[in-house]
Specification:
Elements: H1 2-29, E1 43-50, E2 60-66, H2 83-90, E3 93-96, E4 104-105, H3 109-125, E5 130-141, E6 148-160, E7 163-174, H4 179-183, E8 209-212, E9 220-224, E10 227-233, H5 235-241, H6 252-274, H7 277-286, H8 289-295, H9 299-318, H10 324-336
Antiparallel strand pairs: 1-2, 2-5, 3-4, 3-8, 5-6, 6-7, 7-10, 9-10
Length: 338
């Protein structure tokens, strides 16, 4: 009996050694096995979702889920926020990888479209103890990489103390497959991306810095100096987003197209003013009364064109698309045409 007990004591450690060897074997020889990054235990209602591109890759969704335990206060849910106002507020957030690179939009147009459509609906379903969480991706262009790349951004949105809050968990995470994954045949999306949903009690660690697009925009601030991932939109920011004239979304491409149209009208106007009288008389014989009216630009039409040009550059200056120097120079050019 003594010898049997002694043998059991000797054999027992070998079981643990075999276990550790197996764990080491699976970790090193099966790297494609991926553990879920985001837990579903607090999920309540999913309003939009997109399946993972490959097994083990990120899952995309917009849903409601229960807030963390022992939260300082409950939310003002359910609540109604117009989609276009939510979009205008979120468009104020920009992302800068470092001080050497210019800021780029935090959310792409595709991401803004998803948030604009589904977050207001989710806020109407959410209860006081629930947040709206999201994991989305969209194409972004930066000086750090060539062309546009799909990047993952995640976080949570809620209304507390009658103020819109957004806590970012992950900011524009890289989704490009690693060299090992490409060698194994995965050329779509990496399974190595690390992302989280953002939490009240834990600061998200991400590269770069979130900034406000319009530095003169008031009503948006950080929760505290220690939270670079938590932004609060006050009632002032909400009221400013309700003014469509001052917050009209005009991209640089749209501005160039509009400016080209206005410049073309002005060019035609100047061309007609410089046309010799004799040439105009010859043309008038060939044109009937209706054609004359369509070809000639009246003084009233000229004034309307100039007013439209002045309004356009003023709006672009307020949105800081034009600098003060560009605005003054362009304004002087327009006034000189008078």
């Amino acid at each position: 009996m003594y010898n049997q007990k002694k043998m059991k004591k000797i054999k027992t450690p070998y079981k643990y050694i075999v276990f550790y060897i197996l764990v080491f074997f699976f970790i090193n020889f099966f790297p494609q096995i991926n553990i879920a990054k985001v837990s579903n235990k607090n999920a309540v209602k999913t309003l939009w979702k997109e399946a993972a591109v490959v097994a083990g890759a990120a899952k995309y969704f917009i849903r409601t889920e229960k807030i963390e335990k022992k939260a300082a206060s409950l939310n003002n849910h359910p609540i109604n926020i117009p989609p276009q106002i939510l979009r205008r507020m979120l468009r104020q957030l920009a992302y800068r990888y470092d001080r050497e690179h210019p800021e780029i939009p935090l959310f792409s147009e595709k991401e803004l479209g998803l948030l604009e459509k589904w977050v207001p609906i989710a806020l109407q379903f959410a209860r006081p103890n629930e947040d709206v969480t999201f994991v989305i991706k969209g194409h972004h262009r930066s000086a750090r990489w060539a062309g546009k790349e799909e990047r993952l951004t995640s976080g949570r949105i809620f209304v507390s103390n009658n103020q819109l809050n957004i806590i970012l968990g992950t900011v524009q995470a890289n989704l490009q497959p690693t060299l090992d994954e490409r060698y194994q045949g995965n050329v779509w999306e990496t399974t190595k991306v690390i992302y989280d949903l953002g939490y009240r009690k834990k600061v998200a660690d991400y590269e770069g810095l979130i900034v406000i697009f319009d530095q003169k925009q008031k009503g948006i601030y950080r929760k505290s100096s220690k939270r670079k991932d938590w932004f609060v939109f006050t009632n002032l920011a909400y009221q400013q987003a309700k003014r469509p004239d001052e917050n009209k979304e005009v991209s640089r491409e749209q501005y160039r197209s509009l400016q080209q149209q206005i410049d073309l009208l002005q060019k035609n106007l100047n061309k007609q003013q410089k046309t010799p009288p004799q040439r105009l008389q010859k043309r008038s014989k060939k044109l009937n009364n209706s054609q004359k009216q369509s070809r000639n630009i009246s003084a009233q039409e000229k004034q309307m064109i100039i007013e439209q040009r002045l309004k356009t550059i003023e709006k672009l200056y307020k949105k800081r698309i034009l600098s003060e120097e560009e605005y003054r120079k362009k304004r002087q050019e327009i006034l000189s045409d008078m």
